[in-house]
Design brief:
Number of strands: 12
InterPro entries: ABC_Transporter_SBP, ABC_transptr_periplasmic_BD, Vit_B12_bind_prot
Strand order of the largest sheet: 4-3-7-8
Distance between the termini: 63 Å
CATH topology of the largest domain: Rossmann fold
Strand content: 5-15%
CATH superfamily of the largest domain: Nitrogenase molybdenum iron protein domain
Order of helices and strands: HEEEHEEEHEHEHHEHEHEHHEHH
Low-confidence stretches: 16-21
Largest sheet: 4 strands, parallel
Number of helices: 12
GO biological process, one term: cellular response to iron ion
CATH class of the largest domain: Alpha Beta
Protein name: Iron complex transport system substrate-binding protein
Helix content: 40-55%
Number of domains: 2
CATH architecture of the largest domain: 3-Layer(aba) Sandwich
Shape: elongated
Mean pLDDT: 93
Structural class: alpha/beta
Keywords: Signal
Length: about 300
């Protein structure tokens, strides 16, 4: 292990040891590990754009000292030092920032690098919310670890209540067969176990690829043509880029194309497990309601 990395880690641990004593705080992460800190974290690193956004949602934005590429919300996140991308972390830079807590993405961060962080004695809290209540739960647990319970728990409840209201309004509407495109090359979608798959169900949609075994399956154009969805929704490379939908305009036999039900949803509103998913879900439900009205 590089000597610089060890030196930085020792400095981080000494810093934690010299902080004023407060009551120990503990929370269990999404892989079942209990993470305990001697006092609320003051220097937190978020290793995915979603993790950083969740930290701000939990009221801990002022305590974030490191983010990764594409951490662009809230705008303050763009002013925090970046330690690489979620798939390739700059560990030396991360350790030099002396985090006393690291928020990892279970299936997004390289596990060997996360293991190295743990080996250096830096607490790691792993997250991967798979349903709406889990998003609220993560916010509450992050707020506990950061000592920002009042703001974090209020935001968690706002999200929980908002999603329940959407479900009550839309989940029993006439089903709309839906294809959600999560990526372009290779063409990828989600199954019913994915958080976006749960948005489809909440809005009264029927995910035409919902029963596939993989969480994020790779498919081909032929599979979409065979499934013949009534509506196609997609994000894209950017918050206003509709290019992914032009792919389907060439297929006049598709029900979605014939009806004009090719809908764009800004990806950060639907593809990050954060409170902004409430806004994305509202938009998603509105698009399916448009499709119903065109029958």
């Amino acid at each position: 292990m590089p000597s610089k990395l060890i030196k930085h880690a020792l400095v981080a641990l000494l810093l934690v040891a010299t902080l004023p004593a407060r009551a120990e705080v503990c929370a269990t992460d999404d892989i079942g590990e209990q993470v305990c800190l001697p006092s609320p974290a003051q220097r937190i690193a978020g290793l995915s754009p979603g993790a950083s956004e969740l930290l701000w949602s939990a009221g801990a934005g002022d305590q974030v000292v490191a983010v990764v590429a594409w951490s662009d919300y809230p705008p303050e996140a763009k002013t925090v030092p970046s330690v690489g991308s979620h798939t390739r972390l700059d560990l030396e830079k991360l350790v030099s920032l002396r985090p006393d807590l690291v928020i990892a993405w279970v299936t997004g961060n390289p596990q060997e690098q996360i293991s190295t962080i743990r080996a250096l004695g830096i607490p790691v809290f792993s997250i991967e919310p798979r349903d709406f209540d889990a998003v609220s739960s993560v916010i509450e647990r992050l707020a506990t670890l950061a000592g920002t319970e009042e703001q974090g728990w209020a935001e968690a409840e706002r999200f929980r209540r908002g999603m329940a209201e959407l479900s009550a309004r839309y989940s029993q509407r006439a089903p709309v067969p839906v294809f959600y495109q999560v990526w372009d090359e290779p063409l990828m979608t989600v199954n019913d176990q994915h958080l976006i798959g749960k948005v489809i169900t909440l809005c009264g949609g029927r995910n035409v690829f919902g029963e596939l075994p993989r969480l994020v399956p790779r498919i081909g154009d032929e599979a979409v043509l065979e499934a013949n969805p009534e509506a196609i929704l997609a994000g894209g490379m950017g918050e206003e880029n509709r290019d992914w939908l032009t792919r389907w305009e060439q297929y006049s036999s598709l029900s979605a194309t014939r009806a004009g039900n090719l809908f764009f949803v800004p990806p950060s509103l639907i593809q990050r497990p954060t409170p902004r998913m409430l806004q994305g879900s509202e938009l998603f439900c509105e698009k399916l309601e448009i499709a119903r009205g065109r029958r």
